[in-house]
Amino acid sequence: MTDLPAGLSALADRYDVLLCDVWGVIHNGVASFPEACQALVEWRAHHGPVILISNSPRPSADVVAQLDALGVPRAAWSAFVTSGDATRTLLAQRAPGPVWTVGPDRDAVLYEGLGLAFSGPEDAAFISVSGLFNDEAEGPEDYRERLTTAAERGLALICANPDRVVQRGDRLIYCGGALADLYEGLGGQVLMAGKPYGPIYDLALAEAEALKGGAVDRSRVLCIGDGVITDVKGAQDQGLACLFIAKGIHGEAALGPDGKLDPAKVEGLLAAESVGATHAMGDLVW
């Protein structure tokens, strides 16, 4: 049975390092969550490093400005790794390509300095998906025809953001993982390095070791996240403890009529994906 602590402070004596998800836990793409940010500030000030671990398809250095703009204080985190950081290794291995890139212009920084050539789907050697071209208006089905052609050509698809959906304000929008799911359904090969896959955790733990100046005891690392099939599954696959933030992308689905976490509903969300979490809270608070 998943433990339901009142706040992060209740876990302070059990863990030394936090690997904390970003979107859905400390902001919703429009504004930061003050209580969640303060919880991380408290942890970092008194207990240990906080490594932000995000499925953003852009390199971490390019996402810091977004965190600043949303009001996430620098005191809330010690280091930052993204799926984009981990994915650049997969992309570099396939240079010069050419690659057919799918995603908005803002993600172009993912490819900088990798020596890749670019093409359309007809001439590409592989595909790289960072997201939808217009995630405000499009869905996976808008890509079925083009991805069917690519799958028939046997092209591998590298997905830089394994998230299927993400919360933007009060809406859910599609992410790269939704296109990866479609491509797999069409018989295509998909490669990913972000959560729940190992490479991003290797980067995050390396950052933690650098900050602590030595080896990290994995039994004292706590992953925090709201995505069952990314954050919770990733922690489970890595043998790491997990604090599931049950509201996040699941909204009110884990709450009872009193507005508090319903243990049975929490277990149901986790069991639906055949995973378990060590702890669960509605929102991240201290």
Number of distinct helices? 8
| Major sheet characteristics | 6 strands, parallel
User: Going across the major beta sheet, what is the strand order?
Assistant: 3-2-1-10-11-12
- Estimate the global geometry from the Cα principal axes: globular
- Beta-strand level of the residues, as a percent range? 15-25%
Structural class: alpha/beta
Task: Write up this protein.
With about 290 residues, the chain is an alpha/beta fold. About 30% of the residues lie in helices and about 15% in strands. The protein contains eight helices and twelve strands. The strands form three sheets. The protein has a six-stranded parallel β-sheet with strand order 3-2-1-10-11-12. A four-stranded parallel β-sheet has the order 4-5-6-9, with helices on both faces. A two-stranded antiparallel sheet has the order 7-8. β2, α2 and β3 (about 80) form a beta-alpha-beta unit. The two termini are about 20 Å apart.
Short key terms for the protein model shown above:
30% helix, four-stranded parallel beta sheet, alpha/beta, six-stranded parallel beta sheet, single chain, 8 helices, 286 residues
List the helices and strands and how they pair.
Layout: E1 17-20, H1 34-46, E2 50-54, H2 60-69, E3 79-82, H3 83-92, E4 99-102, E5 126-129, H4 144-152, E6 156-159, E7 165-168, E8 171-174, H5 176-185, E9 189-192, H6 198-212, E10 221-225, H7 228-237, E11 241-245, H8 263-271, E12 279-281
Parallel strand pairs: 1-2, 1-10, 2-3, 4-5, 5-6, 6-9, 10-11, 11-12
Antiparallel strand pairs: 7-8
